[in-house]
C-alpha cells in the first residue's frame, strides 16, 4: 500500500471510531442530561458547602472567595470524570468482540488509539467547555479571548486524561477493576492539583508533591487563562504560558504511552 493510501486508511479508521464514540453518547439522552446537570451540582453544592467551611487567604479583606477559586478545579474534574467514563467503552468493546474485529482489520494501531482517545477527549471537552459560559458567576468578567484560551487548555487536558484512561482500560479486564484503579490514581491527583487549595497554602512537602502532579498544570493553565481565583501568582502556581506548555507536553506523552501500551500489551 502506498504512503497516501496508508494515510487515507488511517484517517478513515480513526475518524470512524471517533464518530462512533460521539454518536453513541448523543443517542443516550440520560448521558446527555447527566453531562449537563452533574457539573452544575458539583460546583453549586461543593462550592457553596466548602465556601462556608474554608476561607482563602485575604478573603476577609475582600479577596478571592473559595467558590471562585474552586471554579477551574471543577472544570478539570468534569474533564476527568467524562474522559475516564468514556474510555470504559474500550472494555465493553472487548467484551462484545468489536475491539477484536477492529484489531483484525488492516489498519494501523495508531488509528485505533487516535480514534478512541480522540472520541473520549471530544466527549470530555463537550461536557466541560460549556461551563466556561458560567465564568461570570465565579467573579471572572466575560472575555472572549480568555475563554478561547481556556477552551484550548481543556482540549489538551482532555487528550491527556483520555489517553491515561485508554492505557489502563487496555490492560484491565473488568469495569470494576478499571474503576478501582482510576479512583485510586486519579482522584488523589485531582485533590492535589491546586483545585481545593493552592500550593502556597500547603506544607512544604505537600507543595512539592503538588508541583510534580501533572494535573496541577492543567488547573493552573485554566486558572491562568481566565485569571480566575486571584491568578496563579497569588496561588503559588506557574503562569499561564508555562502551565499550558507543560500540559501540552504531558498530553503528547500520555498519547504516546497509550500507543505503546496498545502495541505491546495483550488484549484480554
Task: Tell me what you see in this structure.
The structure is a single chain. With 268 residues, the chain is an all-alpha fold. The chain has one domain (3-264). Helix content is 75%, strand content 0%. The chain contains eleven helices and no strands. The chain has helices spanning 3-26, 29-51, 66-96, 98-104, 109-128, 144-170, 175-191, 204-211, 214-226, 231-235, 240-264. Helix 2 packs antiparallel against helix 3 (66-96) and helix 3 packs antiparallel against helix 7. The chain is globular. The two termini are 30 Å apart.
Concise structural overview:
The protein is mainly alpha-helical and 268 residues long. It has eleven helices and no strands.
Spell out the blueprint of helices and strands:
Layout: H1 3-26, H2 29-51, H3 66-96, H4 98-104, H5 109-128, H6 144-170, H7 175-191, H8 204-211, H9 214-226, H10 231-235, H11 240-264
Helix pairs in contact: 1-5, 2-3, 3-5, 3-6, 3-7, 3-9, 5-6, 5-11, 6-9, 6-11, 9-11
> Which structural category do the helix and sheet elements fall into?
mainly alpha
What is the helix content?
Answer: over 70%
Shape: globular
- What percent of residues are in strands? under 5%
The count of strands amounts to: 0
Uncertain parts: none
* Radius of gyration (Å): 19 Å
DSSP helical segment count: 11
Q: List the secondary-structure elements in sequence, H or E.
A: HHHHHHHHHHH
Strand count, sense and closure of the main sheet? none
Mean pLDDT: 82
Compute the separation of the termini in Å: 30 Å
- As for the number of domains, it is 1
Amino acid at each position: 500500500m502506498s504512503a497516501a493510501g496508508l494515510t487515507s486508511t488511517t484517517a478513515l479508521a480513526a475518524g470512524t471510531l471517533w464518530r462512533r464514540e460521539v454518536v453513541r453518547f448523543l443517542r443516550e439522552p440520560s448521558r446527555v442530561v447527566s453531562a449537563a446537570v452533574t457539573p452544575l451540582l458539583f460546583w453549586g453544592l461543593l462550592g457553596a458547602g466548602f465556601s462556608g467551611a474554608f476561607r482563602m487567604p485575604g478573603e476577609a479583606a475582600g479577596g478571592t472567595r473559595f467558590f471562585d477559586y474552586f471554579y477551574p478545579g471543577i472544570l478539570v474534574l468534569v474533564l476527568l470524570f467524562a474522559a475516564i467514563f468514556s474510555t470504559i467503552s474500550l472494555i465493553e468493546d472487548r467484551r462484545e468482540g468489536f475491539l477484536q474485529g477492529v484489531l483484525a482489520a488492516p489498519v494501523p494501531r495508531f488509528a485505533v488509539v487516535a480514534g478512541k482517545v480522540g472520541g473520549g477527549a471530544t466527549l470530555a471537552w463537550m461536557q466541560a467547555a460549556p461551563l466556561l459560559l458560567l465564568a461570570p458567576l465565579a467573579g471572572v468578567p466575560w472575555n472572549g479571548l480568555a475563554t478561547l484560551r481556556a477552551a484550548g487548555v481543556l482540549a489538551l487536558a482532555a487528550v491527556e486524561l483520555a489517553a491515561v484512561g485508554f492505557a489502563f482500560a487496555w490492560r484491565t479486564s473488568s469495569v470494576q477493576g478499571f474503576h478501582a484503579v482510576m479512583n485510586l490514581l486519579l482522584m488523589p491527583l485531582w485533590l492535589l492539583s491546586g483545585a481545593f487549595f493552592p500550593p502556597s497554602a500547603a506544607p512544604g512537602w505537600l507543595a512539592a508533591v503538588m508541583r510534580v502532579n501533572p494535573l496541577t498544570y492543567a488547573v493552573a493553565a485554566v486558572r491562568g487563562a481566565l485569571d480566575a481565583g486571584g491568578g496563579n501568582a497569588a496561588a503559588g502556581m506557574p503562569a499561564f504560558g508555562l502551565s499550558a506548555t507543560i500540559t501540552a507536553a504531558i498530553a503528547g506523552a500520555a498519547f504516546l504511552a497509550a500507543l505503546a501500551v496498545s502495541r505491546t500489551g495483550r488484549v484480554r
